[in-house]
């Protein structure tokens, strides 16, 4: 905030904008520990909500967190049944 005040006091224009953080399928795959094609398949199947920016998928950060939690819960459940 101090930087913004300094710039305003110096007569500079300051613009503040808010955008939702998005992640690429590769970033989501790294977060969860799976492959990028796995994430793309989940997007195409409708299991992960994503938007297209040009020819690229972008996944909202909260959606990536939701899917990561679901993935971990499903994995824990599956592993629990095997033991």
- Cα shape: elongated
The counted number of beta strands is 3
Helical residue percent?
55-70%
Number of domains: 1
Oligomer: single chain
- Strand sequence of the main sheet, in spatial order? 1-3-2
Write down the secondary-structure element order: HEHHEEH
- Strand residues, percent: 5-15%
CATH topology title: Multidrug-efflux Transporter Regulator, Chain: A, Domain 2
Mean pLDDT: 91
Structural class: alpha+beta
CATH class: Mainly Alpha
Which spans of ≥5 residues are poorly predicted at pLDDT below 50? none
Q: Gap between N and C termini, in Å?
A: 54 Å
Q: Round the Cα radius of gyration to an integer and report it.
A: 19 Å
Largest sheet features: 3 strands, antiparallel
| CATH architecture title | Orthogonal Bundle
Output the number of helix runs: 4
Task: Characterise the protein shown here.
- With 83 residues, the protein is of the alpha+beta class.
- It has one domain (21-82): Multidrug-efflux Transporter Regulator, Chain: A, Domain 2, CATH 1.10.1660.
- It is built from 4 helices and 3 strands.
- Strands 1-3-2 form a 3-stranded antiparallel beta sheet.
- Strand 2 and strand 3 (56-60) form a beta hairpin.
- The longest helix is centred in the C-terminal third of the chain and has 22 residues, at 61-82.
- The termini are far apart.
- The mean pLDDT is 91.
């Amino acid at each position: 905030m101090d930087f913004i005040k300094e710039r305003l006091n110096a007569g500079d224009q300051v613009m503040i904008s808010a955008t939702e953080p998005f992640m690429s399928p590769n970033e989501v795959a790294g977060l969860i520990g799976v492959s990028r094609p796995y994430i793309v398949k989940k997007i195409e199947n409708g299991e992960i909500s994503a938007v297209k920016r040009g020819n690229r998928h972008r996944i909202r950060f909260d959606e990536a967190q939701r899917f990561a939690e679901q993935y971990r819960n499903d994995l824990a459940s599956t592993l629990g049944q095997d033991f």
